[in-house]
Amino acid sequence: MRSILFTLLLSAASAAFASNLTIDDVLQSASQFAQNPAPAKETQVSAYMLVSLSMPKASLERLARDCRDAGVPMAFAGVPSDDENPKAPLLNPNSLKAFAPLIEAGAPIELHPELFTEFGIKEVPVLLIKEETDSACGTAPRAVAVPGDVTLGYALDQLSDRQDVFGEKARALRAKLGDRN
Q: Is the pTM of this model over 0.85?
């Protein structure tokens, strides 16, 4: 709070030199800000099922159905290369054919190479639930991961006993799947 107040005083003091504000004006503004600080930013919690097209087809199809029903995106690190035309753009009809069965199953498909890098994901599948605080402080995101070729329901069950934002998110997503394992 002191750093915010100091920043406010500093910016108000800079403005005072550029205009006819007095130090009393600056102190009054700082006092009003201290009494009514800006509201805290809301925390956003997102879930992703990190997968790869190298996984067994049956596992991908099962996860596609679960992800569709729970509204959890299937996140890929990239798209397969186009062996027929190596000079083709990365996103082209041939490279996207591999995603067709998942899209047809209704699964939300997203490309998120940064998640694999940021959290050091080397093996898939992994359920990742990530917390991000929209903050000027630049705090690093927190996350929990459940690795293994298991159902989405089972992965969510592993987190549902937690008494934090991750458990809350897991319980909300689990409710969308119903009694399905």
A: no
